[in-house]
Amino acid sequence: MTFSLFGKRALITGSSRGIGSAIAEELAKAGAEVVLHCSHNIRKAQEVKERIEKAGGVVADIISADLTNAVEAEKLAKAAGEIDILVLNASLQYRVKWDRITASEFDEQIRCNLFSSMLLMQKLVPHMRERKWGRIITIGSVQEIKPHPDMLVYSASKSAQTNMVKSLAGQLASDGITVNNVAPGVILTDRNTEALSDFEYASSVASSIPVGFFGEKEDCTGIVLFLASEESRYITGQSIFVDGGKSL
Predict the structure, then answer these.
(1) Would residue 62 count as lying in a domain?
(2) Which domain holds residue 127?
(3) Exposed / middle / buried, residue 88 (Cβ in 10 Å: 0-12, 13-18, 19+)
(4) Domain count of the chain?
(5) pTM for the structure as a whole
(6) 93, CA 20 to 30 Å: which among 35, 105, 106, 192?
(7) Angle, nearest 10°, between helix axes 221-228 and 18-29?
(8) Residues catalogued as catalytic
(9) Angle, in degrees to the nearest 10, between helices 18-29 and 42-54
C-alpha cells in the first residue's frame, strides 16, 4: 500500500538528526511539504534538507528554536505556518542518578518533552480544526513503561506524554484530528551509539530484546507515515511500540 501526503504540510520537531530526520525524509517522500526544526545545529538540518530535495521532496523551511524556552516554542509555531501533520519528536534526556537530579535538569526535560508539545498543539490545532483534518504524532519511548533507572525524569515525561495523547485524542476526534504515540525501543541513533559502544553493555541490552537486535531509525518511519495518512483515520489515542518486543 502506498500512502500519499500530497497537499499536506508537516512540522517535525527535532528533525536535524536521528529518528526525526528519518521521519522528515519519509513524509517528504510521500509528498508532504515538510518544515524542519533543530535546536541549534542548522548545518545538520541543512544536510537533511539537501537529502530531501535530492530525492525530489519539498522542504518549506528550517527553523531553529530551543524548546526548553516557551517564547522560542511559540516563535516556532508562528514561523511554521499552517500545519496539517505535527510530529512531536524533539526530546531532552539527562542520564543521572535520581538522587543527583538538579532542579534545572528536571525543569529542562519537562519543558522540552511536555510543555513545548502542549504549547505547539495549542497554537497549531486551530488550523486543523478549521480544515476538519489533522494528525498529531508524538514520539515516545519504551521507557514510558520500562523506565531506565538513570533516566527517571525522561521516563516520567514520556509516560505523561502518553496520557496527554489519550486525553487529547478524545477531545479532538470530532474535529477529524487523530492523536497517537509511537514509542521506539533501543534504536541506533547518535544519542544511543555512544552508550552502546561498550561491547559487554551492548550485548546485555540486546539480550533483553526478544528479537535479539537493535532497531534502526528507519524502523520507526513506516508507522509514522501510516499514522500521518488518511488511511489511519480510525486509529486515535494509541501508543504503538516499535521496540523488538522490549515492552513485553
Answers:
(1) yes
(2) 9-187+218-242
(3) buried
(4) 1
(5) 0.96
(6) 35
(7) 50
(8) 154
(9) 30
